[in-house]
Amino acid sequence: MLDPKGRNRSPGRLTSCYVTTISLDSAALASIDVDAIVIGVAPAEEGPALAAGAEDLDRALDGRLTEALGALGATGKAGEITKVPALGAVTAKVIVAAGLGETPSAEDVRRAAGAAVRSLAGTARVAVALPAPSAEGSAEGVEAVALGALLGAYSFDAYRTGDEHKSPVEEIRLVSPAAPDGGAEAAVERARTLAASVKLVRDLVNAPPSHLSPEDLAGEAERVAGESGLSIEVLDEKGLVEGGYGGIAGVGQGSVNPPRLVRLSYSHPEASKTLALVGKGITFDSGGLSLKPAEAMDWMKSDMGGAAAVLGALSAIAALGPEVNVVGYLAIAENMPSGTAQRPSDVLRIYGGKTVEVLNTDAEGRLVLADALVRAGEDSPDLIVDVATLTGAQLVALGTRTTGVMANDDDVREKVVAAAERAGEPSWGMPLPAELRKGLDSAVADIANISGERWGGMLVAGTFLKEFVPDGVKWAHLDIAGPSFNKGEPYGYTPKGGTGAAARTLVQIAEDVAAGIL
Predict the structure, then answer these.
(1) Is 487 a catalytic residue?
(2) Which pick of 69, 368, 370, 443 has the fewest CB atoms within 10 Å?
(3) Which residues contact 88 (CB under 8 A, 6 or more apart)?
(4) Catalytic: 292?
(5) Catalytic-role residue among 202, 366, 375, 413
(6) Is residue 498 scored above 50 in pLDDT?
(7) pTM for the complete prediction?
(8) Within a 13 Å sphere around the CA of 228, how many CA atoms are in the beta-carbon half?
């Protein structure tokens, strides 16, 4: 069917329709009324050892649960999932043993819970009885288990028909022998908030470009802002040109779907600091006239993962209420080839006046980010953090799971890496060598959008962005080109497709700014 703009769009939603609930429960595992029970196992000298919390279940099986797991090849190593039929010994039909590894961290427990719940797709009710990480407090441990379980209960089903696809687990009961207290309840509520944020990001990244134009993404931001109590402003293509946003307008001029710049804001009445978040939102990246090869284009619907992460993070920040002001910018465009597209050798004037020679139209993300970085500086932030699926060089350097972190301040870079680590998102600090700037010199403009040098593409992109950060403002750049979209098989709580990368890190950064850590 054709929409009012003549685009062929089949009916469909932008987001998945399922809702997985989670609650605390102190019932005995042997009698709890669920379809499956998840327990933890760890490596031991003579096979897998049951983790704390599974004792009641083992007694119900006459102490033979470890023997059964060993017979099925379970070792307890991290990431391993083993299923044992209960055969009527307990109320649940199946017992799922999730490998925790030798000394499980909070992230190990999150991944174990997620892998177990993910393996139970098609199951209605699941009890999760994983132990809290030993290094964490009780509330933090509860949050780790709850968040991992909720993140594992994900499926993008907005465009599926028929009943052959298994839906995620419907109900999760987090089992602890202790009666639920206020700290545990708050931890579960925080996990719900973070999981909803990540689900939003995943859904938007998975949405096909036929249903997520720049206008559509801006519309989703308006919906989220209305539900979350965020303030929002949207500049359309006319406002962008009139406002001098040459980067966003230039990238978007080749598409029939015009660009947008979205500004979201969260305010706390007692805040003394301001954090600015900037996200790249290329809803589809063909490369423009510098056209990508076909094999590099089929997953370019994910090139708006940075903007989605900023939107998801702000929705969570609004719910959690940290004592910091946060503004978020979504720089949104579709990069397409056409008779109106920008050309290699065109010169764009970025917001604020600096000019850029476009030597490659496939280096477009840095152009839209440049506009938004300059604009973000007008909010007088204490820290700017941008996040983008920016370079293929990030995958070459760090692989598909580790975010590259660059900054104009070494201390900021290391603290952002630490925040990401606490949030459970792998990252690695990278330098911005001063000598890379010369490669961006242009014969006709203030700067070129690519370097004449072949090497260090991730660092060159960061060096380009640094040119548009206001003097005296601390800034960090997160390149999530690999982590944003999982082209391989699911693992832990991470599904195939959109992962929700960086949303939890941005929330943690906001909380660290509020706490004076950053």
Answers:
(1) no
(2) 443
(3) none
(4) yes
(5) 366
(6) yes
(7) 0.96
(8) 28
